[in-house]
Design goal:
By secondary structure, the protein is an alpha+beta fold. The protein has 15 helices and 19 strands.
Length: 541
């Protein structure tokens, strides 16, 4: 058998394989925790919960129980996944004018940047519906990791250096995450004993203990009245209907509002079907892809909002007329004139992870405390960073948010409202079962990363590791340039410049987690992302 005749999962770079299950995330400890739970008889949901909790102490600078997220779940016999929205919400004190007279950093740092966390409510609901092992058992690997301390990796060190000047201004965050006022060098263990104690408390008393009682009071004590006991006690998760679209002999299922990411994903894939082709040149497909990205971000500010409030109808932006209108405007040798101002870049972090089990279904989750180190606030004695999700709202009617996303009328601040997200967990189902399961982190780059991984795998026949590892493009309309990773070859850059694209090279800013289900062959494969400290683990015994 020649190299070309080998099954794609046996070609380098190799994916992680598992006969009975796989897990992939931003850290090896978290992925291993999930596989250990599967081996102990847990469901895929049990494994995903253990993974999430462990990730909260392995990557505390961008995810954890002080944040929120979205989860797609599929169980055997289901015709489509279900999706759970446990996104943070604005507290009752918030309103459209909240940030107009506050300092510019108020939506990204400190008290006013914090929304009501949804993570524990989401994990608790998932366990209630689909858990198999006792709730308290799922905290064991996370508590052990928090007490022992997870070693700083180069990605952690890089992010810490970029936020060092801000961290020193927040005593609890500086105490836990700096050493002598400076960022710890890679290899330095960071014990989080207070977070371990918080985990132990929640393991014993359940998810509801986050929202009422002593822990809730501790959380509120650092927020100076911005959030109340009623805000916490009133938090509710939402089961919502996925967005879906037929694609390439299967059906893509993803999240809908309040995330714009799922709608944009389907728009990008749909436009690529109309203008691109697996047989077309890399130069042509890259041009069509960049144009599809631009169009989807242009419509984003009009097409997404919290569905519990007045907002747009997403189906209007997936209609036959929408696709025909835009695909006929796209041209092969030049870019569309979509005018907008040039804005400055910002940075942020999210985590995505996926788990599959031979007997317990598939889960993909995207979760976050929003920007790196969130609000920088840690309630004393909890070890828990709180989110700065308020910046995901349109806090100023004529200014972009911290990810440079244009102001959106449906995303203005209102009490009890969920801000628009870019999260794009996705499941591509073929013959009634998941084939590909993909999620990513990276703010607005989430959507474009998920789209490229699906195209790499389905259009171009890459194994899941190759699909994750391939160089990526990103365009979000504002700023008006095409972002390319350093690995994108110069020949492709020149071809895109010739068609009018303004090329800027940027460091790798998104990191994905993806897996493939090989049901007929009886195994799973998973692809981890080098752009973070990503790792996949398999379970075969």
């Amino acid at each position: 058998m020649t190299e070309d005749q080998l099954p794609r999962h046996l070609r380098a770079p190799f994916p992680c394989l598992g006969r009975r299950g796989v897990a992939v995330s931003d850290h090896p400890l978290a992925s291993q925790a999930a596989c250990d739970v599967l081996a102990a008889g847990g469901s895929a949901v049990d494994a995903a919960i253990a993974l999430s909790l462990t990730l909260g102490c392995a990557c505390p600078y961008y995810t954890g129980i002080g944040g929120g997220g979205f989860g797609l779940v599929w169980m055997p016999g289901w015709s489509e996944p279900r999706w759970l929205d446990f996104r943070e919400v604005a507290p009752a004190a918030a309103h459209m004018e909240t940030f107009e007279d506050l300092p510019d950093v108020a939506s990204t740092q400190g008290v006013h940047s914090v929304g009501v966390p949804g993570m524990l409510a989401g994990l608790g609901e998932l366990h209630k519906q689909f858990g198999r092992l006792p709730w308290k058992d799922l905290f064991i690997p996370a508590m052990a990791a928090a007490r022992a301390g997870v070693a700083v990796d180069p990605n952690w060190h890089r992010i810490s250096l970029s936020k060092e000047r801000i961290l020193v201004g927040f005593p609890e965050a500086a105490r836990l995450f700096l050493r002598g006022g400076v960022s710890p060098f890679p290899g330095t263990p960071i014990p989080l004993p207070e977070l371990a104690d918080t985990y132990e408390y929640l393991a014993e008393h359940g998810a509801a203990a986050f929202y009422r009682g002593d822990l809730a009071a501790c959380l509120l004590s650092c927020l100076d009245g911005w959030m109340t006991a009623e805000d916490l006690a009133g938090y509710q998760v939402r089961w919502r209907q996925p967005l879906s679209m037929d694609w390439r002999g299967g059906r893509v299922h993803t999240v809908s509002s309040p995330s714009a990411g799922g709608l944009q994903l389907l728009q990008i894939l749909g436009l690529m079907e109309r203008r691109g082709s697996p047989e077309a040149s890399q130069e042509d497909n890259s041009h069509w892809l960049a144009e599809a990205m631009r169009i989807s971000f242009r419509d984003r500010c009009q097409s997404a909002g919290d569905p519990d409030f007045q907002g747009p109808d997403p189906s209007l932006y997936l209609s036959k007329d929408w696709f025909e209108d835009w695909s006929t405007q796209m041209t092969a040798d030049s870019i569309l004139q979509l005018i907008g101002p040039t804005l400055a870049y910002a940075t942020g972090g999210t985590a995505s992870h996926a788990v599959a089990s031979a007997d317990g279904g598939v889960v993909v989750m995207t979760e976050s405390i929003n920007h790196w180190f969130g609000s920088f606030l840690i309630p004393k004695g909890t070890g828990m960073l709180l989110n700065n999700i308020m910046d995901d709202f349109t806090t100023h009617r004529h200014r972009p948010d911290g990810f440079n996303l244009a102001p959106a009328p449906w995303n203005l601040v209102e009490a009890g409202k969920r801000p628009v997200s870019s999260s794009t967990p996705a499941v591509w189902m073929v013959d009634g079962r998941p084939r590909l399961v993909v999620g990513s982190a990276g703010g607005p780059r989430i959507t474009t990363s998920v789209a490229q991984i699906l195209l790499n795998s389905v259009w171009h026949g890459q194994n899941i590791q190759q699909a994750v590892q391939a160089p990526r493009l990103h365009h979000q309309w504002f700023p008006d340039h095409l972002e390319v990773e350093p690995q994108v070859p110069e020949g492709l850059r020149q071809a895109l410049r010739a068609r009018g694209h303004r090329i800027q090279e940027h460091a790798c800013r998104s990191h994905a987690a993806a897996l493939e289900c090989h049901w007929e062959e009886g195994f799973f494969s998973a692809g981890a992302d080098f752009r973070s400290f990503g790792a996949a683990r398999g379970w075969s015994l």
